[in-house]
Design a protein that fits this description.
Rossmann fold, single chain, 2 domains, 12 helices, 9 strands, four-stranded parallel beta sheet, alpha/beta, globular
């Protein structure tokens, strides 16, 4: 049975653990010069409606390093642009390729593809979530902090798709997560509700109904960035303006005053705080130049890890390895 990753709510704790371990193992083997080619003869399609540097290249590179072939598909070059039903395209592609990676605006489009496809569909970013980004980010936290457990992770900035995926992850892994956003730019209620539903179903599965209560959630939502970063182990930020929001810049710039990740804000966190950014960064807006260019910055390791995590995801979904509930 095929498995999709449309959001992190599609995964269980064992799935996360397996993917972290496998990605770290694949990275280690790659650094040692060991060649892994489990996907020889396999191919993936990449349908990207949004521009991309890291996500596209890391998925393509991941597939090539595993011995497979990536096929980049611009949606404007397909029959979808001439109103062919999504379901028809999905059924046909399922006969040609072994997995489909999609980066688009509307999350419902990815869901439509997944429902009609007989191959795994992977969300490479939608307006709702960016699951593969957070998988590689937590992998990075494990590398530099030893574990994500017991670490205070603080999001500073817009309640966007990346922040949504952090909330999704926290509902499965019980992360100590704080989301600090300006008033009016927080996490949408439907995201909180779906994440809490995941927590409830997981709690019921293991007989711990108490954790189903919202009051038991380890996620804190606030509009105070200074209070949020106190004793933080990890501070994470992203652009204030996502793709498609360019006309809203001046309004957002005013609303996000005080939410820049800079030395002054980080002085409230732990001395060894790790700063993360999914990139691209708007220097001098959501993050200061000196923080981005710090000698101990992990941003570039964070970006590299996307490739290794994508290898783990592709191998797991295409070959149906890992825990039973991944396949």
């Amino acid at each position: 049975m095929k498995k999709d990753i449309l959001s992190l709510l599609d995964l269980e704790v064992d799935d996360f653990t397996y993917l972290f371990q496998r990605a770290i193992e694949l990275k280690k083997r790659f650094k040692q010069g060991i060649v892994d080619r489990p996907l020889i003869g396999k191919s993936i399609g990449l349908i990207f409606d949004k521009k991309s540097t890291r996500t596209r290249v890391s998925f393509e590179t991941a597939m090539i390093q595993l011995g497979g072939t990536p096929i980049y598909i611009r949606s404007t070059d397909t029959q979808i642009s001439r109103n062919e039903p999504v379901e028809d395209t999905a059924r046909v592609l399922s006969r040609y390729i072994d997995a489909l990676v999609m980066r688009t605006f509307d999350h419902k489009l990815v869901q439509q593809f997944a429902k009609a496809s007989t191959i795994p569909v992977i969300n490479a970013l939608t307006d709702y979530s960016h699951p593969c980004q957070i998988l590689s980010d937590i992998m990075t936290i494990i590398e530099f902090k030893g574990s994500y457990e017991g670490k205070k992770i603080v999001w500073i900035g817009d309640g966007n798709n990346v922040a949504n995926s952090w909330v999704n992850a926290a509902s499965v892994l019980d992360l100590n997560l704080v989301i600090a956003t300006p008033e009016g730019y927080g996490i949408k209620e439907y995201v909180k509700e779906s994440s809490n539903s995941k927590r409830c179903s997981r709690s019921a599965k293991y007989g711990d109904l108490k954790s189903c209560s919202k009051s038991e959630s380890t996620i804190i939502f606030t509009n105070d960035p200074i209070e949020a970063v106190k004793d933080a182990d990890v501070v994470y930020t992203d652009v204030w303006l996502s793709m498609g929001q360019e006309d809203d810049f001046e309004k957002r710039k005013k609303a996000f005053k005080g939410f820049q990740v800079n030395r002054e804000l980080l002085s409230k966190a732990k001395a060894d705080v790790m700063v993360m950014h999914c990139l691209p960064a708007h220097r001098g807006e959501e993050i200061s130049e000196d923080v981005l260019e710090a000698p101990d910055a992990v941003f570039w390791d964070q970006a590299e890890n996307k490739c290794h995590m994508h290898k783990a995801i592709l191998e797991t979904l295409i070959l149906k390895t890992g825990p039973a509930n991944v396949v």
